[in-house]
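Weekly structure sync, notes
Attendees: PL, DS, HV (note-taker this week)

Item 1: Acetoin utilization transport system permease protein
DS walked through the input record. Source organism listed as Gracilibacillus orientalis. Sequence as pasted into the shared doc:
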Amino acid sequence: MNFKDQWRFVRSNMKRSKSRIFMTVLATAMGVTFLIVLASVGFGLHSTLIADILQDRSVTQMQISGIENDDGYAPITDEEIAELEKIDGMNAVTRQQRLRQTPRFSIDDYNGSTETVVTHFPSELKAGMELAEGDLPEKSYEVVVGPHFIENIFPKDLPADAEIYDKEGMLNEDYKYDESLVGKEIEMVVEQNVDNEIKEHTITLTITGIVEPPAKNWLQDQQVYISEEVLADVEAFTETSRGAVISEDQPTSGEEVEGYDNVYGYADSLEEIQAIMDDLTEKDYMVYSAASELESLNSVFTIAKAGLIFIGTIAILIASIGIFNTMTMAVTERSSDIGIMKAIGAHPKKIKQIFLLESSYIGLLGAVIGTVVAFVISILLNIGLPRIIESAFGQELPEGFQFSSIPPSLILISVVICLIVTIISGLKPAKRATEIDVLKAMRREM
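Item 1 (cont.): predicted structure, written out as tokens:
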């Protein structure tokens, strides 16, 4: 009895009990749908969060805080920068020096104070710094500003009782500078305490560009990025390292500061970060990378997805009860047919194969139908759930956010689980079919 004959026998017998087979397939399909939809939530949230992280240049970023030595800590200097740039797989090394006072900036009839940093623009550009508007500085007294710099300057004649910020903490449109900053001259005012009297020094700068906003919406960049020449001008006035203001309360405030405040290394790719970090650690550098957090996040989601798949499998196990009952009834109803097959010499192994083929076919049908339905539900979830959340809670989700994602691996896992469960459910009825006595079967008795 070849496979074609077995398949013909299965099809003809299944047609005799269409209603029972239909309900069994339906139960199996519901189990597969539940498994896929439940697990797809884990896959969807994982892919969304990882995509959100990967779109930020910080994914290949390593924060290099300094070098451990006998005294405890040493800052990164130009000598170390040159060494870091020679490391295999290191794409760029950015460095910043912070001004040790917060200058006041004036543009037209607006002013405000914000943090200022000395930036090495060639390395920033190589590391992936992008501008939302304008160009990078080409001259000493040209600067770029953060995308939120405009949120930190206010009209000079602002009323004392003015409500500067709205309920969401954003600057009210009535007080916001409404012209383009690119090409504008801006005055930076620094100060110094001279004989207990505050002296001021004004430096005129030109804004050439605005930095691209951070990938994460909650991050704010209000900084002004200046050149080393501007820093030298500030230090010439204050006569202190990085423009520190001399204070009687802090007698060491004017001491010389060595090295850089912020040093970041950027790997060529995510895969090379660990090797670079191991190399730096061996050389006593204090280094940290968000990539290690990414690995932890992947591990957490892998465990969560495995748990969801396990819970979904329970639904298929419940459906397997129906398959067992269906196959048991099939053996009972076809006892005479089994007896005839045995009488004409059919091997018990072939009889067993017939019933396992039938249970597998039921499982495969259920898996296909369940997968199709799961895809439909997944699409509806991704379209409808964000709208429900937005209308019910007033919370707008990020663009491209996915609640549900069904990768090919999830489909394969679900189908394999379904087939294994259905085959196991059909094993006992199939074995029982091989044990039927020929004479009793011919008399339609068990």
